[in-house]
């Protein structure tokens, strides 16, 4: 077994993000310190408005902090321009969104292929890797279907496959079960965790679903933009 | 990453809006094709009407006379000697259909009762003019005789305005009076063989034509004012000009060869006017298409902000987003432009089939045929222009998307 990577996938220090100005200012995140190790699974819990999504956006280089730093695999993202951030996301990060966010004019297979397509991977390799991941989430028979022809659970499984197809160092999942019924949500999360174990990517899941949090190996609870608790229930998955 | 296949699929999201955009672009391209067809037909028609209305493709005259007179006038003095031999030499050149001699005479034309008005006359060779494809718009009577009339049997054709001011008609007798080179007056009795129009009202008030032999009898000269060279094809003008210039080089007195555009400043003025109108209309069309297409593209992009945010979130670079949106605009431009070019061609055929006429322009006599030319370069140009126009129209939505933060786009509803 290879030795654990001493450089965390994410390192946040004194991370703050505010919205609005003056009396209307809201501190979405307030001086957060957080490390996520390579291959680690972290569930970010907290009520709506506690800053879960903001934290994931900042870790995922989708937004810029007002103060503090974020490092992704040791790289300070504050120094990166839009193109460099896009390349970092394309190569090292995967995203799963609550609303699936699939491209409606692409088939399930093409949606999974998309990260490889923009990276310039050849068609044959794209098809093979995307096809294998679609099969892993049980959708090989739905490969040619457009998103509107898929159920919510199927769409999120396509999104999970898309998040993993380029072999990222970390996956950021923002309320991945939020638009699914509980059974489907559990099934999708189980698949996400299984694929995480297989691929070794770190996984950060934001959720306020208490049922999902029950088995979380590490649970970071946010309240009013601050870390209220950081609990390690067991060994990393 | 080749953005065009995905861009084409994106156009299928909202077929009605895509169809509307295509219609706007196609209308713009078709408008350009139709306008270009109208302008080209007008240019060609005016050019050929001037050339075959008596201008000829080339004029050969004594250089000093050309320098003394402004181009295109009908008052060159009889100064070209040895013209029959010169004409034979020019007619042997390739691309030359025929060469006709002209003798310009000016003076008074007098009715039997003594009433007189001034005239500008030109002695012509009707057989040569016919060989050059010259057309006289005869309103009454008969054409001038092909062979030179005998002395005492001279005839003339009067422009309709001149005949009207004199109050004469076909068959009436007139006396032409002119001043010879030595200052003495000379007279010639002619019978009105026919009435014609030049198509220009002002010219119609003073012009008359008579056979070259009659004009020579009137002016008592064997020299002519100039030789007019008619070509098989107007496009050969430059080549024929060079050939005739080589032929007459070094002659004494020096001869000048003048191509038709230099003798037809009116053509240049009309051309500049039409091109100005065309450029203005083209600019309006381009502006309308840019505004309409830009509006559509902005709507298209705004509806997809979340999706575009997602694409950026999963690693699509700003340049790739630009390429994708630009490709969508270029598809619209290419498809709309091609459709517009085809519709324009159909429109040309349709309008020509209707055989419409327009009122005479100011100063002209005859109504104009509303006909349009097929201008392949305008069709290709309109299609290409629509590509550029759509690329321009895409700037607004592209800049909007690039300014938007990814997280804002993701949260867009």
Total of helices of chain A: 7
Looking at the structure, the CATH topology of chain A is Rossmann fold
Q: Biggest interface: chains and residue counts?
A: A-B, 31 and 23 residues
- How many domains of chain A? The number is 1
Q: Strand order, biggest sheet of chain B? A: 2-3-8-5-7-6
| CATH H-level superfamily of chain A | P-loop containing nucleotide triphosphate hydrolases
> Which architecture of chain A does the CATH hierarchy give at level 2?
3-Layer(aba) Sandwich
Give the N-terminus to C-terminus distance of chain A in angstroms.
Answer: 15 Å
Largest beta sheet: strand ordering of chain A: 6-7-8-3-9-10
Which oligomerization state do the chains in this entry correspond to?
heterodimer
Mean pLDDT of chain B, as a whole number?
89
Residue stretches of chain B low in confidence (pLDDT < 50, at least 5 long) are: none
Portion in helices of chain B: 40-55%
Q: What class do helices, strands and sheet pairing of chain B give?
A: alpha+beta
- Low-pLDDT stretches of chain A: none
Largest sheet of chain B: 6 strands, mixed, barrel
Structural class computed from helices and strand pairing of chain A: alpha/beta
Main sheet of chain A? 6 strands, mixed
Residue share in β-strands of chain B: 15-25%
Strand content of chain A: 25-35%
Describe this structure in words.
The complex is a heterodimer of chains A (237) and B (413). By secondary structure, chain A is α/β, with parallel strands linked by helices. Chain A has one domain (38-64, 81-232): Rossmann fold. In chain A, 33% of the residues lie in helices and 26% in strands. Chain A is built from seven helices and ten strands. In chain A, the strands form two sheets. Chain A has a six-stranded mixed beta sheet. A four-stranded antiparallel beta sheet of chain A has the order 2-1-4-5, covered by helices on one side. In chain A, strand 7, helix 6 (182-199) and strand 8 form a beta-alpha-beta unit. In chain A, helix 3 (108-118) packs across helix 4, helix 3 runs parallel beside helix 5 (152-164) and helix 4 (123-136) packs across helix 5. The two termini of chain A are 15 Å apart. The longest helix of chain B is centred in the first third of the chain and has 41 residues, at 15-55. In chain B, 54% of the residues lie in helices and 20% in strands. Chain B starts with a helix and ends with a helix. Chain B is elongated, with a radius of gyration of 31 Å. The model of chain B has no long low-confidence stretch (mean pLDDT 89). In chain B, the strands form two sheets. In chain B, strands 2-3-8-5-7-6 form a six-stranded mixed β-barrel. Chain B is of the alpha+beta class and 413 residues long. Chain B folds into two domains: 4-50 and 267-410, no CATH class; 73-259, no CATH class. Classes of the chains: A alpha/beta (237), B alpha+beta (413).
